[in-house]
Amino acid sequence: TDLAPNPSTPPGNPELADAAPPPQAPAIIQRKDYRVPEWLVPTIDLDFALKLDATRVKSTLRVERNPHGEQGTTLRLNGDGITADSVTVDGQSTNSWRMDGSDLVIELDGDKHEIVIETTLDPAANSQLSGLYASNGMLCTQCEAEGFRRITFFPDRPDVLSRYAVRLAGDKAKFPVLLANGNEVARGADPERDGPGTHWAEWHDPWPKPSYLFALVAGELVANRSSFVTLSGRKVRLAIYVRPGDEARTGHAMESLKAAMKWDEDVYGREYDLDDFNIVAVSDFNAGAMENKGLNIFNTRYILADPDTATDGDYDAIEGVVAHEYFHNWSGNRVTCRDWFQLSLKEGFTVLRDQQFSAAMGSAPVKRIEDVRVLRGVQFPEDSGPLAHPIRPDSYQEISNFYTATVYNKGAEVIRMMTVMAGLDRFRRGTDLYFERHDGEAATCEDFVKAIEDGAGLDLKQFRRWYEQAGTPRVEVEMRHDATSGEVRLILRQTVPATPGQPDKAPMPIPLRTALFDRMSGRHGGEQTLILDDATREFSFTGFAEPPVLSINRGFSAPVAIATPTPAEDLLFLARHDDDPFARYEAMQQLVVQHLVGVVNGSVTGAALDQGRAAIGEAFEAILDDRALDDLMRGEFVILPGETYLAEQLLVNEPAAIHAAREELKAWLGINLGAQFRALHDRCSAVPYSLSPEARGSRKLKTQALVYLAPADPAEAIRRAKAQFDGADNMTDRQGALMVLCGLSGPEREEALAAFHDRYAGNALVIDKWFSLQAGSLNPKALEHTKALADHPDFNLANPNRVRSLYMAFAANPQAFHDASGEGYRMIADLIETLDPLNSSTAARFVTPLGRWKRMEPGRSALMKAELERLAAVPTLSRDTREQVSRSLD
Ligand code: 0A1
Ligand code: ZN
């Protein structure tokens, strides 16, 4: 290749510019600094000569000056860790380019030019799994958010949309399958051009797209093929590509895909827009999956399932993620993001859409409970910690740190509130207008809000604060009853807590679905949606001779915390009578939360402790006996609130006390309702395996029964768990039983772990479960076990699934991670330090659990902070990890 002389780059060699970057303060990208691109790239041709350790890329860009942009003379093309082998402008090799940091800058005098750039990559050495990388002998890409610049030089920003024409050539034996976005337009073999034993394929994507949606895959893959006829009668070919041997486990993903395609037509009027829809599953992947246009790339864990290897939870996750990526074709691809601050435009909306879809496919109330559990368990802590940010952030250093529960899950809740205020029909008019107005554009959150406002006929002026302000609003509730007039006055107050960089907050409109129950009849006179849109608001109701029971934030209509405790008797009433299934569940949870918080802070002792337990026991018994409840829902009711959520309710987090109080309650329930739990385990064990809701419900309850029996009667729990494990014909039962055995001690534990490992040796996804079960276990030795597992021959730092299976499970294990010695903290900090140079975006995700030191009791707080400070002193820390560490220490 002709290496262009490059006189303008001191000291004469562009590669040196990258080799040793001078230490400098990290650049902070600000939302307000957005400028339209100076240059557009209407088309790009990419020519890949694929090889695992040396792929050559020739990129041809037709660039045009943007009439709306600044009229400078330089074209800046982003790069990251790559060098140009050659650069030509309008067919001439040129000297008028230079490297500026990692970017390639070309001086151009005209308005339209053709730029050709050649780069060489080493995919096998790409351990970051961003850009083009190798996984098990295949090649694949991950370009969101800024991976395309690791492949070639390009204006790597989502508001530059191009038509892609891609030619892939490579060894026919190693890469029999060659895939890229769009349509395959030609294929053949040209050994003279590409070398002996090669073949090639050409793919054209007719839809202009940003670079983050580019993808290619090359490898030895087999396809599960099917088809779908769209609402206008077009036949779309569907294929799910996996490694040979895995094809039998793709059926559920394929069914989920077809159901999602149909649902998006029925519910949002969205039709698929290419003749092919391809999915590829890869086992080395930093995230869950990626919505590349017409070529979604998935983590194997969200594709592969059969009853022997996947739990019911895995089946649901596959259905949800397959749908999520498919839905992005409209919410993300056809309408994309102007800049990365708008990430929630596509993610919040797409999460809402996948939640709605899963609700429609299964039990809507159970799905709502699960979604709220994730929100409270992950997003609420984020919103009250050092990494809190609005769903539309104002600044970042590294965008991959903003793929958060806030942007995704709170983003979905914010749009869900629009559906509550408008109703689904009017909301649909809003989304129709949004897609119509912005199809083919790179849009903003503001564009979305405006379209909903116009289409649904809502006034969202004040509502926009939900995009601006971080922090979970707290709502206080006061009810005043006048027995003579029968009037009830409900006084609601909101406060939005201060968050980093946002000390003062303004009130936001909070839609609260509310009902007032008559104590005698157990009924209410109709639900109303109250909008709390000021610091304080009062609502008045008439016709109540007796003070009613308040059911508020039904269906979790707003992502807020109700801060006022409810009298236990009212909670018991709601747990029995509320006709909103979420509210009923919530009353049970609240009953337990209020009790456990009291136990931990010392306000509930002696007789009050006995009374509290007795009330919870009664409520549990009623739930276990209630014939009107289905088992899936019953299964939700008997899951105690998690320790992270409990910690959120306390001013000072005392993990050991929270853990002890929760475990003691479990044991008390196991002892006092032992007969019921045994009967439950027997009843559920008799239900044969199927994917019906009834059978799934019984599997959920079966293991829950063991969870309560374990602390109450360990010997019996071991007997039952062993029988469940040995007799299991599905992974849900097997994993549930192994989890219970893992938390106890004895030869049965070791035997079951060994049997499980033997049975599934070589099945990476199941071996991940084997690691997670041990690291996440209630077993008092979980810390020791985790340490030992890091040296297990199956452990592998290069595979993100494996890393997460061990260490995320560990960091989420309150007892082990918060071991008073601080060893848990050290283990995670050591992991971050070792993993960071290999895979910085995965490493950075482990900073979060260490970041919650401020509200921790003093001993652990100091230990956590010391680990963060140790990390901050590592000079070579990546931008990803450094940003998270420094925000956590601020
Ligand atoms: N857009 C994807 C998520 C995603 C983000 C970054 C990735 O690179 C590491 C990969 C995937 C989604 O929401 O599904
Ligand atoms: Zn997404």
From TrEMBL:
Residue ranges of domain Peptidase M1 membrane alanine aminopeptidase in the record: 253-466
Domain Peptidase M1 alanyl aminopeptidase C-terminal: start-end pairs: 569-889
Cofactor(s) required for function per UniProt: Zn(2+)
Region (Disordered) residue spans: 1-23
The protein's enzyme class: hydrolase
CDD domains, A to Z: M1_APN (cd09600)
Gene3D superfamilies (UniProt xref): 2.60.40.1840, 3.30.2010.30, Neutral Protease Domain 2, Peptidase M1, alanyl aminopeptidase, C-terminal domain, tricorn interacting facor f3 domain
Entry's family note: Belongs to the peptidase M1 family.
The name this protein goes by in its record: Aminopeptidase N
Gene: pepN
